[in-house]
Amino acid sequence: MERKGILEVESLTKTYRSGERELTVLSDVSFSIGEGSTCAIVGPSGSGKTTLLGLCAGLDRPTSGTVRLDGIALENQDEEALAELRNEKVGFVFQTFQLIPTLTALENVMVPLELRGERRVAERARELLVQVGLDDRATHFPPQLSGGEQQRIALARAFVNRPRILFADEPTGNLDSDTGEKIEQLIFRLNEEAGTTLVLVTHDPELAGRTQRIIRLKGGRVVSDDLSSSEAATVVRFRK
Amino acid sequence: MKILSPWIWKMAWRDSRASRRRLLLFVSSITLGVAALVAITSFGYNLRERVDHQAKELLGADLEVSSRDEFSDELVEAFDDISTRRSHQISTSTMAFFPKNGGTRLVQLRALEGEFPYYGELVTDPPQAGQRFKQGRYALVDDGLMVQMDAQVGETVRLGNLQFTILGRLIEIPGEAPVAAMVGPRVYIPYNLMSETGLITLGSRARWRAFFKLDPQQDPLAIEEDLRQRFRHERLGIDTVQERKRELGAAIENLYSFLNLVGFVALLLGGIGVASSIHLYLKQKISTVAVLRCLGAVSRQTFTVYLLQAAGLGLISALLGGLLGLGVQMMLPYMLTDFLPVDIEFSISPAALIWGVLLGLGVTLLFALLPLLPVRRITPLLTLRADYESSGTGRDPLRWLLSGIIAVAVFAFAWAQLRDAAEAAWFVAGLAAVFALLAAVAYAIMFVTRRWFPRSAGYVLRQGLANLYRPHNQTLVLMLALGLGTFLIMTLFLVQESLLGQVSGLSGEDRPNLVFFDIQNDQLEGVREKVLQQGIQIDNEVPMVTMRVAAVKGRPVREILDEMAERRQEETREGRENREEGLGPDGPARRRWPFVREYRSTYRDHLNDAETLVEGRFTGRVEPGTSPVPISMDQRIADMMRLEIGDRITFDVQGLPLECVLGSTRDIEWERFQPAFFVVFPRGVLEEAPQFHVLVARAESTEASGQAQRAVVADFPNVSAIDLSLILSTVDEILDKVAFVIRFMALFSVITGLIVLAGAVITGRFQRIRESVLLRTLGASRRQVRRILLIEYLSLGIMAALTGLILAVAAAWALAVFAFETDYAPSPLPLALAFLLVGFLTVTIGMLNSRGILDRPPLEVLRTEEVH
Predict the structure, then answer these.
(1) Taking Cα atoms as reference points, which of A224, A222, A237, A231 lies closest to residue A27?
(2) FRET pair for B183, CA 20 to 30 Å: which of A50, A137, B657, B668?
(3) Are B75 and B231 in contact (CB under 8 A)?
(4) What is the nearest CA distance from B383 to chain A, expressed in angstroms?
(5) Whether the predicted pLDDT of B307 surpasses 80
(6) pLDDT tens digit string along A216-232?
(7) Beta carbons of B74 and B86 less than 8 angstroms apart
(8) What ipTM goes with this model?
(9) What angle do CA B403, B407, B411 make, to 5 degrees?
(10) Could you tell me which of B663, B655, B658, B649 has the C-alpha nearest to residue B621?
(11) What are the helix (H) ranges across B716-823?
């Protein structure tokens, strides 16, 4: 069953100039991710995972190739349009949480909605805080929260604008395994409830295994693009 | 529009919450600059308004005519036609002798009749004395002199040959600033008693004045013009209320511009503080901006968030500055009262307040924009990679544009103050040069410490020195704030010191310090004897002959003056020149001056050590009967009369014409405690002319000088004396008062400098705290961390103080040599003190800032510091 591609990457190449040398970080990467699916991008350090994520989310511009997000070719958009696009369609979760330290938990969650100029944003933000189980921490500032709590707030912020696609960069990388496990569960639950497409960057095979598809990068190239073990298991079971 | 969407306001508000107090400190560096400007501008309005209001009191009359000679009958007839409401006054300098304790002092004696002042009043204690003193042998004596002489009302004072009963103390004279009393204390006596004092004789320096009260329909300017035309051969001084107002206005404008520029420098210094604080503040906001960009904020929005914060806080501190300024304005009249001939009533000028606040806001925004511009270039990619290309680097054309706007704005302000584009350009260039030099030294420090880093030194020293150039260093901002502050304060101080030094340089072991003058021919022997009896050494006896110019290059002076008057009329008709400009430095009054003035000339056979020959040959002696007589003139006055060597000039020596030829010109060093002469004759010509003498003497002590003065004045009441210590103390007193005002204004710069310093240190606090805590975590002792900070602040303080002081010495030297035309040698003690003080302050503020960090557990510190 081929679903419509929400993220379509074609011949993506990114090179950096470092003095005299040219450094190719990504080379001719192509794939397409269907709407509502989950996908992990894995690979060793320096394989180009994060660069790929940045390009897919419109945070950076490729040297060549195209990225289509929900049918929109990012290379044709100016910075302002890209920002609007991110605000409308994209959610982010970062390894270092990236909460704004001067805003309370609630205010952090409200930012994407406020940027859109929506009204009654506090209500919606509170809903999300309830969903991540931190409504009692609404008025706390990030430095007053634990790492796990901070990442849950970040998740609430990522889902608050009902994104079409969620990019998560090592979401559990800075957390202990118990907390990480809880965050993982939360990501997948929220993702399922909202029907969001999930793109994960990780080098945690266990986490990657929970997605439907794994794209492996090495030296800036896609070395494999498989259904993940869990997905494969489902397919196998289905065949049986 | 997305730019000013509600989110931007909310975000600016929320994001500022945690750091508001800290931010307010940053921008409060402009508060004092605004305060100074508001105070001065508002005071300026205040003053102008008072001058307008009290304009007539400035003169005390509608018109004043004065002359060095007694008014001619013809002139008095003309006076009668003008107005019968007229007062007369004769004034001269003479010695007042207080018999009770034998005190003597050179005073300005004024003999007055009539109802003057017509506007305002002679304020005296007791009050009615101002009118009653004309009814008997009474005198009014300046309050300051009464105090100095320990004299009381009812006691006597001798003036010339007469004893007067002191009827009252003079508190205030319309149109005269209190500082005038310091230079020459004033004594009033009745007009008709002046002749009996015997002080007005041939050759004595008196001035006759007539004060008029006019009818409202009479035009004082028309009368002035008429008198000038009709009596153009007489040496009349004519003064009107308009003229007084213009002169005073010009003086006030100068004072106002100067103070305003000092205030503006404080504001600029504050601007630098704002720029550096915002710069450091934004460094901590980079990740926030990157996250916001990730979440969909466009760069203009994030830029506006921080611009709004700066603007909001700028507005608050400008308003605070405005209020503070009004407080300061209330103090200014007390400080300036001695220099002002008008009473000041405090009133607030809303225009000044608004202007000051807007200026403060403008400076905040301009200087905040510089560090804000890079915010536009922060990429959202930083959320993924903190080490991603350092954001906001590369050339930004807007930066150059903004720097240009700042330079133009500073120039425009200076131009508005100085009303001279060239001077304004110098001001901007000078300021830019100081900034550039300080910045250059800062960069040099960073370069040198990095290049020649003492790798083998101990850890504490290495760490402290490394702080000077590592990222987030405070070297540049501290150098600017401290260096500029030190420079400003010390320049003012050194200039004052050099001016005082110039005066006190007159005194010395073997220099004359006492001068007797107005000695008549027949008194010379007696005065000499008296002086010698008191054990005073006589250095020099100088004869003086009064004379006037009768003809120049064969043309009678009358003809020259007629031509000048015609030209003046023509110019006035053609509207090329208005009356006001006519009295300026190049105006007709100035052009007339060398032709109409009375010359007091001497004769001798040598040039003295204050004179240098410029052109021609000095002739020291001629045979009696030589004609023309070769004379030597002051270079400047010869230039003003357009005379060349060999030109003929005829003097009228008390009725007798004397043919002369310009033999030489001299450059005269006027700053000597000895008489100087525009015209010097050779011996053999004037010996028999009516003359009087000046006796230049040297007293061992102030007491000896006082005794000699008393002895001479007792026997020769018309002889006056002045001693150097009196001049010194007067100059000292006046400079002290001026310096006080200047220092008060400079204080704004100093405190601003301290706030900027504190701001810079506190902004850098987070960075330093992280490091200190990290060091503590790694086991560094409190003492080690403290010493690291000490080394950093100590080296910064030392370098900033040194640079500021060197610049100040250079500026003071330039001012002394070029503006005051004197030698300059800085005295080391104040410089050393300033050096120590600046170093101490820097270290103290820096160390105070780390207080509280070293005593708490590292993690707790980090948590609280991150939010606040």
Answers:
(1) A222
(2) B668
(3) yes
(4) 7
(5) yes
(6) 999 999 998 887 666 55
(7) no
(8) 0.90
(9) 170
(10) B663
(11) 724-763, 765-777, 782-814
Number of A to B CB contacts under 8 A, please give it. 94
Residues of B in contact with A113 (CB under 8 A): none
| Minimum distance, in Å, between the CA of residue B764 and any CA atom of chain A | 18
A92 touches chain B (CB under 8 A): yes
Kindly indicate the confidence band of residue B84, based on its pLDDT and cuts at 50, 70 and 90.
confident
Give the type of residue at B363: V
Q: Which of B5, B6, B384 sits opposite A54 (nearest CB)?
A: B384
Q: Does B286 touch chain A (CB under 8 A)?
A: no
Scan for tokens 């120039």, then name that residue: B411
SS3 B602: strand
* DSSP β-bridge partners for residue B657: B652
Inform me whether the C-beta atom of residue B346 falls under 8 Å from chain A C-beta atoms.
no
B385: chain A residues, CB-CB within 8 Å = 50, 54
pLDDT one-digit tens code per residue, B171-208: 888 878 777 777 789 999 999 999 898 888 766 788 99
Q: How many CB atoms lie within 10 A of CB B858?
A: 18
Closest by CA to B187, choosing from B272, B97, B126, is: B97
Q: From B866, which residue of chain A is nearest by alpha-carbon distance?
A: A143
Among residues A90, A117, A101, the alpha carbon closest in space to that of B10 is found at: A117
Strands (DSSP E) found in B624-739: 629-634, 648-653, 656-668, 679-681, 692-698, 720-723
Q: Determine the straight-line distance between the first and last CA of chain B, rounded to whole angstroms.
A: 32
Q: Is B738 on the interface with A (CB under 8 A)?
A: no
Length, in residues, of chain A: 240
B175 or A110, which is more confident: A110
What is the number of residues in chain B?
868
Instruction: Look up the pTM and report it.
Output: 0.74
Of B188, B205, B29, the C-alpha closest to B761 is B29
Mean pLDDT of A132-148: 91
Chain B residue whose CA is closest to A141? B867
Q: How many CA atoms are closer than 13 Å to the CA of B640, on its beta-carbon side?
A: 19
User: What is the spatial distance between Cα A47 and Cα A53, in angstroms, rounded to a whole number?
Assistant: 12
Q: Do B384 and A50 touch (CB under 8 A)?
A: yes
How close is the nearest chain A Cα to the Cα of B3, in Å? 11
The answer, for A87 touching chain B at a CB cutoff of 8 Å, is: yes
Q: Does A80 touch chain B (CB under 8 A)?
A: yes
Residues 6+ positions from B501 with CB-CB distance below 8 Å? B825
Q: Where are the alpha helices (DSSP H) in B218-240?
A: 220-230
What is the DSSP pairing of strand A213-218 with strand B186-190? unpaired
Q: Which two tokens mark B698?
A: 């040297």
Residue contact B385–A50, C-beta within 8 A: yes
Which carries the bigger pLDDT value, residue A238 or residue B193? B193
B170's tokens: 């003079």
Angle at B819 between CA B815 and CA B820, to 5 degrees: 95
Residues B816 and B500: their CA atoms lie apart, in Å, by 11
Among A50, A101, A115, whose Cβ lies nearest the Cβ of B296? Answer: A115
Cα B286 to Cα B317, B382, B454, B853, B858: the distances in Å are 25, 8, 33, 25, 24
Are A94 and B383 a contacting pair at CB < 8 A? yes
Flag whether residue B384 sits within 8 Å of chain A, measured between CB atoms. Answer: yes
Give buried/exposed letters for B549-570 (b at 16+ CB in 10 A, else e): bbbbeeeebeebbeebbeebee
pLDDT per residue as tens digits for the range B10-62 = 999 999 887 787 777 777 788 888 998 898 888 888 888 888 888 788 888 99
Contacts of B309 in chain A (CB under 8 A): none
The residues with which B662 forms a beta bridge, in sequence order, are B631
CA max distance for chain A: 57
The verdict on B292 touching A (C-beta cutoff 8 Å) is yes
Helix (H, G, I), strand (E, B) or coil at B385: coil
